[in-house]
Specification:
heterodimer, A: 714 residues, alpha/beta, 23 helices, globular, B: 160 residues, 8-stranded mixed sheet, 3 helices
Chain lengths: 714, 160
């Protein structure tokens, strides 16, 4: 009796009927029927293996295939092979799903566990979220993505971001919440009807609730655009309340006013302290602290200034008894000539406070008003860490709040360069093909939302977060059209792409191999991004959707693309040899230049990639030299729209050292007392547009490598 | 005079964005010196008119604003350095009366020679005193030990 060894290693005795059944099915699929032929074929197979004790299932199938191919029923052969292949793929993917789930249970799949530095994968709710993510990704790949898009994603030609959420769930990426409209008009949340708040303390408490709800319904960042303008009126209400009380008890108007101001200042400080704690203790349905950004800085009224200083003073103070640096909310401070830029401006003192805050807590990053308007057409806070909306008008009025981004697909540019072997023409030809796949992928995001009803996310669509009050049964897709929402093509690794295309022998004396040192290569980088910009502009014209070009931060993507390319192309110097790809258009993190020179190098890109960008400089400790930091900020004013200051702000709870911890193989280490206990330190690094604390939640490997290689620019 | 390093853009040696020159030569020989390699007067590279021209050009740079010049070392007031440093600070003040000069010295203000005083006249902020290992203090900006002082010029004189 012959035993068949199956794929899982188990044995089953040979059964001629199974062969008859499989071949009959294949004949059926080909529209054929010939029982005699099938019977004979099965007999031949049996005879072939009759003398053997065991036969591998693959050998058995190969025999069937060969016999079919040699017969007159070539189409049956085709159907048989096709059927086997489909079954193989299904089986493989079932196995990979099982492996990924096991990886979460056993806590040993680094790719999944460390993909997002903001997720603590050790705790149950996050594991539930990761599990949902694994299944959603699996299902979307199998059944929702067009097959060429899925293949391009799996190969690493493109990256379909956030597959763990969308398109399985009809979710979008990031947004500017219309907090103003929600507070003014009231809304329903859970079982409660919320009315317009009557004080700043209530306004911030409700804002925290809105953020928690919204963050559970979208997968990207939530931003509040100009929170000083939005919350200012509630500071006013608080003042009025205290003034009335003062007049009642003190009588004297001057004294009552002074009393009301002091009380309001205290209330406002407390309100933002509570809001900051609230956000840092929230845990959304997405298994993480919400990615929240507060934009502020332009308001000049007493109330708005009080909001600005309260936010900054709270941030400077830090969280908890160790005065730890919070990583959320991200703070983005707007600088504008005539408001806070120079000594004679009314809010110059707030700019000084922002400088102090940045030197101690890294945030705020700054938005340069005039440059941002020039580059993107209007002023607004980035959605999440760096996504920017274009201008959009309703009834002749520019609208920003309530708008959103539908998601990102990123191109692996270094891969195209590697495939082109230095042939620029071929590179651009391949790029066209990849762009077309990326467009299909982006359209699949849009179409996933086509028939979705507002009831799927009441907070967004019926209660006002998206700036509209749809009825539960209304389709949501209307509010994404005509550029109201953006949808973004992303790109990564300009630095590696240039190296792969034009060589990178930095050791040669003739300057001009590093993109920074060669005007010609700089122009090549810009021309490439221009080509991408032209593509999204064309898609916008064709479809009416707000396609935009986004400079991908690549928290985990920097690692994934590079890993896949190393597998395919080996270790290519200057391209795959570092374990990560460089963030979008950014200067190579190992290139030692001044922050001024870095700004000059990068300033040509935001005007071309208007859908998303940020520039950084790496600074030493600047706490005692705010003037020098201000010099750099001022320098950026008419050059880049959005700038972040990276500066060492680590602190040791054991010896009190403040400065920069060393990244060692055994974790972060205090340079003063060699403390390596991750619970007795605060280590903060820029992950992407956001900060992260790698001592408590490790970065993915490639990102850690990139962070370690960053050189100071001063 | 010899010098060790010249940094055209610097933010960690004095307030603001600065040009910084580390000169050679120092007679204090403090234990635990931060820049021990600069003690010998003949270490480093010869200070040239070319370098002086570059420093003056950098201070006037219209692209990257400089608040002033910082002189450290070594000791800028080391007797062998007084001629060159004296000429440099005079020229800086002639060209850029609004830019400030910071200087680090191991001498104390009260014990300066007349020749040293002639140079210090042009200095806006003087960090003075030797480095004393036992009084090491890394928490104070711009100095290494607690005995050192940051003296700022105010209505003509230097005050702590």
């Amino acid at each position: 009796m012959t035993d068949i060894i199956k794929r899982d290693g188990s044995c089953q005795s040979f059964d001629i009927h199974r062969i008859i059944k499989a071949v009959t099915c294949a004949m059926n699929d080909a529209g054929l029927r010939d029982d005699d032929f099938v019977g004979t074929l099965a007999e031949v197979v049996r005879h072939t293996f009759a003398g053997k004790a065991t036969v591998d299932i693959y050998d058995l199938q190969a025999k069937v295939e060969n016999l079919l191919m040699r017969s007159r029923y070539k189409n049956a052969a085709r159907c048989y092979i096709e059927f086997r292949r489909t079954r193989d793929i299904e089986r493989d993917s079932r196995n990979s799903l099982n492996r990924e789930i096991l990886g979460i249970i056993n806590q040993d799949n680094e790719q999944i566990l460390n993909e997002n530095a903001n997720k603590d994968s050790k705790i149950i709710p996050t594991q539930r979220d990761l599990l949902a993510g694994v299944v959603a990704r699996h299902y979307a790949r199998q059944h929702i993505l067009p097959s060429h898009v899925r293949e391009a994603h799996d190969r690493g030609d493109i990256h379909y971001h956030d597959l763990d959420y969308a398109p399985f769930f009809p979710m979008f990426n990031c947004m500017l919440i219309d907090v103003e409209g929600m507070l003014l008009n009231g809304f329903k949340m859970g079982n409660a009807e919320i009315e317009t708040p009557k004080s700043i303390l209530t306004a911030t408490a409700i804002t925290a609730q809105i953020i928690a709800q919204v963050s559970s319904h979208i997968y990207g960042g939530t931003s509040i655009n100009e929170i000083d303008r939005i919350h200012g009126p509630y500071v006013g209400k608080t003042f009025d309340k205290h003034l009335a009380e003062g007049l009642r008890w003190i009588g004297d108007e001057e004294k009552a006013k002074a009393y009301a101001m002091e009380r309001t200042e205290k209330d406002c400080f407390d309100a933002y302290q509570a809001l900051e704690y609230e956000i840092n203790t929230l845990h959304t349905a997405n298994g993480q602290t919400p990615f929240v950004t507060f934009g502020f800085g332009l308001g000049t009224s007493w109330e708005e200034r009080l909001v600005q200083t309260s936010i900054l003073k709270n941030r400077i103070r830090g969280l908890g008894k160790n005065r730890k640096t919070p990583v959320f909310p991200k703070l983005v401070f707007a600088i504008r000539k005539g408001v806070n830029f120079s000594k004679d401006d009314p809010n110059y003192d707030v700019k000084q406070l922002a400088l102090e805050c940045a030197s101690k807590r890294m945030y705020p990053d700054i938005l340069n008003y005039d440059k941002l308007v020039e580059v993107t057409g209007s002023f607004k806070t980035p959605m999440g860490c760096r996504s920017f909306l274009g201008p959009y008008e309703e009834n002749g009025k520019l609208i920003h709040d309530g708008r959103n981004n539908l998601g990102v697909i990123s191109l692996n540019l270094p891969r195209i360069a590697l495939e082109s072997n230095g042939d620029e023409q071929y590179f651009y030809k391949l790029l066209e093909q990849r762009l077309s796949v990326a467009k299909d992928a982006l359209m699949s995001r849009i179409h996933r939302l086509d028939n979705v009803r507002a009831s799927v996310a009441p907070i967004l669509y019926t209660e006002g977060a998206c700036g509209v009050r749809l009825k539960p049964n209304d389709k949501v897709s209307e509010i994404f059209k005509n550029g109201r929402a953006s949808i973004s093509l992303g790109y990564i690794g300009i630095h590696e792409t240039i190296n792969a295309l034009y060589g990178c022998d930095y050791s040669s004396d003739t300057e001009g191999q590093h993109i920074y040192d060669s005007e010609k290569l700089r122009q090549k980088g810009i021309a490439l991004v221009e080509r991408l910009r032209d593509a999204v502009e064309q898609w916008k014209r064709e479809t009416g959707y707000g396609f935009s070009l986004y400079s991908t931060p690549s928290e985990s993507l920097c690692d994934r693309f590079c890993r896949l390319d190393e597998k395919e192309f080996g270790i290519v110097p200057g391209v795959t040899d570092k374990g990560y790809y460089t963030n979008s258009f950014h200067l190579d993190v190992e290139k030692k230049v001044t922050p001024y020179d870095k700004v000059d190098f990068e300033m040509d890109y935001p005007p071309r990639a208007t859908g998303g960008f940020i520039c950084y400089g790496e600074f030493p400790n600047m706490q005692h030299n705010l003037k020098a930091l201000e010099n750099v900020w001022d320098y950026t004013y008419d050059k880049v729209p959005y700038y972040g200051t990276n500066t060492p702000i680590d602190s040791c709870y054991k010896c009190g050292y403040e400065g920069e911890f060393a990244a060692t193989a055994r974790g972060f280490e205090c340079p003063s007392c060699q403390n390596r206990d991750s619970t007795k330190m605060s280590v903060t690094r820029r992950v992407c547009g956001y900060l992260g604390q790698p001592n408590s939640r490790p970065f993915i490997k490639g990102k850690q490598e990139e962070v370690t290689r960053r050189v100071k620019h001063l | 005079m010899n010098y060790h390093q010249y940094y055209p853009v610097d933010v960690v040696n004095g307030e603001g964005t600065r040009c910084v020159l580390f000169v050679s030569g120092c007679e204090h020989k403090c234990v635990g010196c931060h820049n021990a390699s600069t003690i010998k007067p003949d270490s480093g590279h010869p200070y040239t008119e070319e370098l002086e021209q570059q420093i003056l050009r950098d201070l006037g740079d219209t692209r990257i604003y400089r608040d002033g010049l910082s002189l450290s070392g070594g000791d800028p007031l080391y007797p062998g350095n007084l001629n060159d440093i004296g000429r440099l600070v005079r020229r800086v003040k002639e060209c850029y009366p609004d830019k400030n000069i910071w200087m680090w010295t191991g001498y104390t203000l009260e014990n300066l020679t007349d020749a040293q005083r002639d140079v210090v006249r042009y200095v806006d902020v003087l960090v003075d005193g030797p480095y004393i290992q036992a009084e090491r203090d890394m928490t104070q900006p711009w100095m290494g030990s607690r005995n050192q002082r940051i003296l700022r010029r105010s209505s003509g004189d230097l005050f702590e």
